[in-house]
Amino acid sequence: MNPPSALTPESQPESDKKTCPNCGFATSGNYCAQCGQQTHLHKDTFWGLISHFAAHYFHYDSKFWQTLKALVFAPGKLTVAYQEKKRQRYIPPISLYIFVSIIFFLLLPVFQQHVVHINSEGAAKSHIEKLEGKDSLANGSIEQSLVKAAAAKGDSLKAADRYVGRVGDGLLSDLRAHPEAFKEKILHAMPKLFFFMIPLLAALLKLFLIRQKQFYFVDHAVFALHIHSFVFILCLIGLMNPFPGLQGLISNFILLICFIYYIIAINRVYKSGWMGSVLVGLGTAALYFIALMGLIVLGLWLLFALGH
Questions:
Q1: Mind telling me which residue stretches traverse the membrane in this protein (predicted)?
Q2: Fewer CB in a 10 Å sphere around the end CB: N or C, the chain?
Q3: Domain that holds residue 175
Q4: 59 inside domain
Q5: Structural domain contains residue 223
Q6: How does DSSP classify residue 26?
Q7: Which residues have C-beta within 8 Å of that of residue 104, sequence separation ≥ 6?
Q8: Cβ contacts of residue 64 below 8 Å, gap of 6+?
Q9: Is 68 a domain residue?
Q10: Which own/partner contact pairs does 28-35 have at CB distance under 8 Å and 24+ positions apart?
Q11: Residue 200 burial class via C-beta count within 10 angstroms: exposed 0-12, middle 13-18, buried 19 and up
């Protein structure tokens, strides 16, 4: 005689059967056997929505705290675990980055007075007037050089000189008249900028570690996601500094910590040795910041100059 089979929705008493509101499958118990959704759902309260949000990221089983602990105190550990397919215990890299970056960029405007030193329209005008005064001699020299070059090479440089001057005047005019709008545009563009920097860092790592064929581009991208997540967390802590007068010192200290963390993470993930890790770290970090500054300048040009 065959052993009795497990109870199925069809074998359950009619009084115990329920229909899953999500997929319509006849089921019993607290969860649908077809899609996994809870069968006992009630109308959510506001705090219920908050708890669901927290449950998604924290999972109530310390997954978030395990991830945060590994990210902050064990550079490279999350990337190694991901490569070794030990992924259930930690938050996925892209989810972690999105969550941390959302928190960072939501709180950044609250603390921006410690980051952006132009705190008022009057201060902005004062800074710009000082810059204009200090740069007047340099501007005169540049104009004379451009005029001489234009006379030698034709009208093209004259047109370029006029265009560059118009763009510069437009930028100064916008910043002088609307400093808050200037800051707002920069803050609005920063999330997109740093999201673009992730594949750029991955490409730099791929280039510098090209001999390590076992690492694919996606491996470098996961590493870059974890590095950026840590940097955002550390910068967020730095923004909470209660001593604005020490902001410069704290910013330099944060940069140093980030670089040391980066070197340790490279050594743990790629096993390139300390000397190799330092060389890779210095090279990729230098090119990263050059690209970052270039993109910031280009972004300001696109945001303001093309609008004139």
A1: 94-111, 193-209, 221-240, 246-266, 278-304
A2: N
A3: 93-307
A4: no
A5: yes
A6: E
A7: 232, 233, 235, 236
A8: 57, 58, 91
A9: no
A10: 33/9
A11: middle
